[in-house]
């Protein structure tokens, strides 16, 4: 047993409807002069980018900070080339601050830009040649680049996590930078900006948040602090994810899901150890470009059934958080009921049980086994190839049998 733990949530958090109105003043307080706004084309089309950009035109009135530029060419999974393009643009515009508005891909891209600017890099891949760069305090130093993040999905919680996940296109691998200063200085959780999120995206980003919380709860290095965040995240997701999916305009549900997402990743980041569900999601997402939240949603109950020993020590706490009453039942019964409750939640929000919509050939499936085993996050919890295969067969065998991948 170890008594050493680290819980360092250094991001200031502002929540509430129209909280985005605070952004120019928050940047002014951080000493920013020229802000680069990073987002994506979908949010531009949805009018979200304009809503945020207008804040600078309406409120700064020549006293700063000013909007130096807007970078929108960010693609799924925070591709390394997107990071590099944004870094070049930031330098061209003379930006000294970053505003990330979007889902996990945008938020992680901004982190990569921040890290590259601070380190003087032209290619973010230089920082992660082996797939993982872990830097801890005091070796890791503060990055004096004012940085505010506004999440528009409730899933990754990347606005506050000390982890940036960057996709390496050449290696077809999701790589990680872990640094206590890479996250935003300020996170603004404005539910108004999530109202237009489609039901399906709301569903699988919410399942990503649930996976963060459950893997944090089951972690061998969990603490009372991470458990508190994880359990409350699970309760909020249980109650509000179905509402947010059914009624996207419900501001209360949207705000509670943003907070659940933040709590889930906080627990996950500071209990980081055994994350087998994410190992699968990383590998399958990188190989087949399956959205990360969807991959987690499909794998979560299957992995929990396949590796019950990881989840049994917290079975009672998990069951309680999912609304299952104990009644003196054993841990194995409570875990089985929890897994079934997760499947029921996934069904209720309209997500699939397998990857039938993603054609995978037998040859490709064979390649997933070493991909899962070599995922950079698999170091703490290596799984034997036969277990990786067995879990994979549960979610891809229908695709292969239907002949879609032959």
Please sum up the structure shown.
This protein has helices at 23-29, 41-45, 48-59, 80-93, 104-119, 199-218, 224-246, 251-270, 276-288, 292-306, 308-311, 315-321, 331-348, 362-373, 385-401; strands spanning 12-15, 34-38, 66-71, 97-102, 132-134, 147-151, 163-168, 173-178, 186-189. The chain has 406 residues and is α/β, with parallel strands linked by helices. Helix 9 packs across helix 14 (362-373).
Explained architecture:
With 406 residues, the chain is an alpha/beta fold. 50% of the residues lie in helices and 11% in strands. It has 15 helices and nine strands. It has helices spanning 23-29, 41-45, 48-59, 80-93, 104-119, 199-218, 224-246, 251-270, 276-288, 292-306, 308-311, 315-321, 331-348, 362-373, 385-401, and strands spanning 12-15, 34-38, 66-71, 97-102, 132-134, 147-151, 163-168, 173-178, 186-189. It has a six-stranded parallel beta sheet, sandwiched between helices. It has a three-stranded mixed beta sheet with strand order 5-8-7. Helix 4 (80-93) packs across helix 5 and helix 9 crosses helix 10. The longest helix is centred in the middle third of the chain and has 23 residues, at 224-246. The chain is globular, with a radius of gyration of 21 Å. Mean pLDDT is 93; it is low at 398-406.
């Amino acid at each position: 047993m170890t008594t050493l733990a680290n819980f360092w949530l250094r991001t200031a958090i502002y929540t509430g409807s129209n909280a985005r109105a605070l952004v120019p003043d928050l940047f002014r307080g951080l000493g920013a002069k020229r802000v680069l706004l990073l987002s994506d084309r979908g949010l531009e089309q949805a009018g979200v980018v304009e809503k945020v950009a207008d804040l600078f035109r309406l409120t700064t009135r020549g006293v700063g900070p000013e909007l130096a530029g807007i970078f929108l060419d960010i693609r799924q999974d925070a591709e390394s080339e997107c990071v590099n393009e944004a870094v070049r643009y930031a330098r061209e515009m003379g930006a000294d601050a970053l505003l990330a508005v979007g889902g996990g891909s945008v938020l992680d891209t901004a982190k990569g830009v921040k890290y590259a600017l601070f380190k003087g890099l032209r290619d973010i891949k230089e920082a992660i040649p082996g797939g993982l760069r872990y830097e801890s305090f005091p070796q890791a130093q503060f990055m004096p680049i004012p940085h505010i993040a506004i999440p528009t999905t409730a899933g990754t919680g990347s606005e506050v996590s000390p982890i940036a996940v960057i996709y390496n296109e050449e290696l077809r691998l999701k790589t990680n930078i872990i640094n206590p200063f890479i996250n935003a200085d300020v996170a603004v959780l404005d539910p108004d900006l999530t109202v237009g999120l489609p039901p399906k995206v709301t569903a699988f980003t919410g399942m990503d948040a649930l996976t963060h919380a459950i893997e944090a709860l089951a972690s061998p290095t969990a603490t009372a602090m991470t458990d508190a965040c994880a359990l409350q995240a699970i309760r909020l997701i249980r109650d509000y994810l179905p509402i947010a999916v059914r009624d996207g305009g419900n501001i209360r549900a949207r705000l509670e899901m943003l907070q659940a997402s933040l709590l889930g990743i906080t627990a996950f980041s500071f209990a980081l150890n055994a994350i087998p569900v994410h190992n699968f999601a990383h590998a399958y997402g990188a190989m087949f470009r399956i959205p990360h939240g969807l991959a987690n949603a499909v794998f979560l109950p299957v992995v929990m059934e396949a590796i019950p020993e990881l989840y049994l020590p917290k079975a009672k706490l998990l069951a309680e958080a999912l609304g299952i009453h104990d009644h003196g039942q054993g841990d194995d019964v409570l875990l089985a009921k929890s897994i079934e409750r997760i499947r029921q939640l996934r069904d209720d929000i309209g997500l699939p049980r397998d990857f039938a919509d993603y054609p995978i050939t037998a040859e490709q499936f064979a390649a997933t086994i070493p991909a899962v085993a070599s995922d950079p996050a698999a170091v703490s919890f290596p799984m034997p190839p036969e277990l990786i295969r067995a879990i994979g067969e549960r979610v891809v065998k229908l695709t292969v049998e239907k002949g879609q991948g032959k």
